[in-house]
Amino acid sequence: MSTILIIDDDSTIQDVAEAILKNQGHTVLKALDTLQAERYLSSSCIDLILLDIVLPGQGGLEYLMDIRNRHPNIAVIVMSGKVRTDLLPVKKLAQQFGAVCILSKPFTAPELIESVTAALKSSCN
Question: Among 20, 52, 83, 92, which one is most buried in terms of CB atoms within 10 A?
Answer without folding.
Answer: 52
